[in-house]
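Q: Is it fine to ask for two folds in a single conversation?
A: Yes, each is treated on its own. Send the first.
Q: Here.
A: Result:
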Amino acid sequence: MGNKENPHVLVIGGGPAGSTAAALLARSGVEVTLLERDTFPRYHIGESLLASCLSTLRVSGAYDKVAAHGFQIKRGGYFQWQNDTWLLDWSALVDAEAWSWQVDRAAFDDLLLRNASDQGATVIEQAKVTNIVFDGERPTAAEWVKAGDDTVHTVEFDFLVDATGRDGVLAKHFDIRRQHPAFRNVAVWSYWEGSHLHPDSPEGAINVVSTEEGGWFWHIPLAGGRNSVGYVVSARLAAEKLRGSDSRQFYLDSIAASKPMTEMLEGATQVAEVKAEQDYSYVADRFCGPGYVMVGDAACFLDPLLSTGVHLATYSGLVSAAAIATTLRGEMSETDALAYYEYTYRRAYTRFLSLVSRMYEHYIGSEEYFAHAHRLTDVHEGDSPEQSFTRIMAGLTDVGETTGAQELTGTEVIVSEAERLDTAPDVDGVNVKYMGGLDMSPVWDHWRDPLSDTDMGDVRITNEPFGLTSAPRTDAEREALTRPVLPPHHGAAAAF
């Protein structure tokens, strides 16, 4: 790798993960083809973005396009979880200018896909991949057909980015995807006009409300007065309540049973049909291999509770593109670059896994919960446990670790949590404290028996040129990373 004059990367899937990877690689001078099965814009759930997405949008070239669209500004979250209230004001807890957006995913995803094209990637929509050709374990070509046309096209490549989301082309080919038993949940949702957030909410904040039966609601304000309102509960409980009822009535009955949600939706009008999904949480045993990476939902999807979907998608697109670009330039071996990708993306995913599982299975109060989060991140000087949790849930811990703005979290803490998720006792096949039945051994085995001898703590992402480096960061570079990112009405965003 790295000796070919014009290496070619194929990206399958045009969601946030695939579009981000394609844009970054194209900006780096790599020939990129992106095959997308659908025609954008297309509907997708998952509207709440973390603050971390802004830095990735800047370096991929998409920031100005997204900022000009007029999405709802978001400055934190308001959680009513069991007997606790969390006022997670990013400006007060993290940075005076920490913010993100609440987005219409059809429009947001379309902007990212068009940006990939603008950056030089060849984007082909209505292109369904029907087969991947391998040379041993290394993919070398893909066969695809255009919608309405049986003609089979073949595209050869030097590297493959699988961004096929829940379809998981490579994960299913290798049979390495595992469902999360304890996250066998059902989500039902719709859209409303005229609802209102809790009065203590930061600007544009997501509102999360738990229920006595173990479920929870999201309430997300969107531009134009629309609101996304969803309910998540275990599939078992949903099945019991759905007997003799349809998903719409189940949804409305669940709202009516929640005093906080009834108050927020008082006087509001439902303006869309009820949609539903279930059993959507899973993880692949590995996220990469010879000549390929799996990014975003193709590698793993956790749960909507902490709004991590787009963060993990764009974050994995960023890190994978840096690893691929560095490999193709011959600056690092493929084994080392992919080891870094596996290490960083799985660390980010496992940290969120630990936090979400504790909220569902082991939550005993905010003091203990924030203290747990405090142990899962490198502590900024003077940070309280609540601030540590807020940095994680804003996605800033992950970005800080990969760009060198902060030290890497001690992996022994996260690995220990992964072990506990797998080894806590089961009762009738259900883990009473954590997840139960999920083989998390690939998580800690990777760190104890890494893919290479590279010291991951010395590697970080750089933008000059875009890729991976182990060179120390200068004081000027560190200062630039801590500069606030200003919202559109305050001025231009800082550079990566």
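Q: Second one now.
A: Result:
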Amino acid sequence: MDFLLGLFSRITGNEELARLLFIGVVGISAVLAASAVILLMLGLQDPVQRRLALIKRGHSGSSAGQEAPGNLQLLLERVGQRFASTESAKTSVTQTLLTHAGYRSSSAVQMYWAVRLMLPLLLVGLTLLLLPMIPGVSLNIGLVLVLMAAGIGWLLPALYVGKRKEARQGRLRAAFPDALDLMVVCVESGLALPTTIERVAEEMSVSQVELAEELALVNAQIRAGISSTEALKQLAVRTGLEDVQGLVSLLAQSIRFGTSVADTLRIYADEFRDRRTQAAEEMGAKIGTKLIFPLIFCLWPSFFLVAIGPAMIGVFRAFGNM
């Protein structure tokens, strides 16, 4: 508390004004905290308001296998919805990013922006509480720490979603060759394309869960009346992989011109194996360049120390005896 009073005194230059400002900040913070707690504990627990919120977000309380969202999730969705409505130009880009990361919920964009808004405020509050415990912290250092906390809170959700997107696409890319081989076998055995997709999704539901879910969603869309080409195009959009986009283009041309789907899948499987071999060769060719910096900073100093160290010690001893 003394640290905060001193901080306000340095900013305003007047002790009385600093006290009034400190009391005002404490009062506003208490009112906001109490309002948040009341909204969380009472407002969202009202059965009518909760039911309306569930209807607006498209959630059916009687659907099996799904749990109703909690009060905190509904609160975050409301906060994010206010911000996302003003950022309509970025909504499609954010929704695409979240879809590639595996968040396909209708409220994923609102939740994302709510977390990006509330996390910096939370970290700034924690920083202000921890600053008095650090001895010898000046005003400039305190402001830098607060700004760093706000920046970390703003960038951390984006970095997490980006890493999750890369990891998910890596797993899908690794599982894609196995799915292609299974599809070739199923099509050559006489199964239609929707039945092939369904069978491959069932076979890969244990080893590759994410790709199995995507293929099962494609099969569900085809059963709902969407054409196979459109369902596969939506699969390419959801995954964001160039390999899947190439497969969709080939299958669309095969379906349009009436050529054999098995031949198309076999040709693309061979092409994908060649592309994967080229990617492996490219990664192997980069190893020599990547090893330059570890060799320079780790191995060569030790080599010079072992090779030249004894000679340098002998030279120093010879000049020391003179």
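Q: Anything structural to flag on that second result?
A: Two points. The two ends are 68 Å apart (CA to CA). The chain is about 85% helix and 0% strand.
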